Amino acid sequence: MTLALLSHIRGDTYGGAEIFLSDVAKLLLNKHRFDEVICCFATSYDEYSDELRLKPYGIKIISTGKNFERTLLNSKYSKNRSLLGFHHSIQLRRLVKELQPELVFVAHEAFKPLERIINKNNNNNNKKPALIHYVHNPYEFVPDPSDPIVKLFSLFTNRYIIKENDFSDVVFANSNSTRKQCIRRWNRNDCIVLYPFIKIDEISDYISSSSSSRDDVCIVLSRLSPEKKIELAIEAFNSKVLKKSNS
Fold first, then answer.
1. In a domain, 141, yes or no
2. Who is most buried in 62, 134, 196, 226, counting CB within 10 A?
3. Which long-range contacts (CB under 8 A, 24 or more apart) does 153-159 make?
């Protein structure tokens, strides 16, 4: 049986990164004929609401941090994403060892423990899983220098977060800007830009009807959560430089 394992940190939100992961999961199941596709999230996924519509496709869902998140982190992702990422990396290694998938698709940087599994399979002439890394932000798990326990975080990141070496078979980035960061951080000059899937047919009518009368505007489309730092956009929109350019 062919198995694909997809891993993402957030399972409790319905943003662009989560939609992209769900689209990849459905594509692998339908077009590449994997017998089974599993989406593995660090945070709890609400299978009842199933906002990503994974269940109708028969995609299995695993939440690795379900109990850990409730007992220690109290669902405060923005303050505890590093701890949650460290825990998830351990559980991801366990899942890969147990399930032995043919493809592992990770959309985060908390997967350093997988390097040992891949090297071990190579040394034993066992079939290793193909590893694809999709990058949204290569610095998501970098500890904040102002944090009083940054040394503790650094200890964790050295063990569970990829830093200087991205050992993935394929690295995708969500934009040219992210690709440049991947080259700078990991020296992955072979990184390929793979833009998130956009359903053009749903917005084409709006674009064609409004294109002739559009004004010059600045807009931010984002989930309203602390890590998005929307306040920076507000400051930029009110800056003298931007106002001068529009005058």
1. yes
2. 134
3. 153/82, 156/82, 156/83, 156/86, 157/82, 157/86, 159/86, 159/112, 159/113
pTM of the predicted structure, to 2 decimals: 0.81
**Amino acid at position 202, single letter:** E
Residues 59, 115 within the same domain: yes
Q: How many CB atoms lie within 10 A of CB 109?
A: 26
Report which residue type is found at 137.
N
Q: What does the pLDDT read at residue 37?
A: 96
Structure tokens that stand for 173 in this block: 């980035």
pLDDT tens digits for range 25-82? 999 998 777 999 999 998 888 889 999 999 999 999 999 876 665 555 454 544 566 7
Give the span between the Cα atoms of 156 and 12, in whole angstroms: 24
**Please, which residues bridge with residue 104 across strands?**
5, 131
Taken in order 45, 48, 49, 50, the sign of the CA dihedral is positive
Phi-psi sector, 69: left (phi>0), alpha (psi -120 to 50), beta:
alpha
How many folded domains does the chain comprise?
A: 2
User: Over pLDDT 90: what percentage of the chain?
Assistant: 40
Residue 51 lies inside a defined structural domain of this protein = yes
Q: For residue range 163-204, list pLDDT tens digits in order.
A: 889 999 999 999 999 999 999 999 999 999 998 876 656 555
Give a yes or no: residue 203 inside a domain: no
For the chain, how long is the longest CA-to-CA vector? Answer: 67
Cα–Cα dist 202/200, whole Å = 5
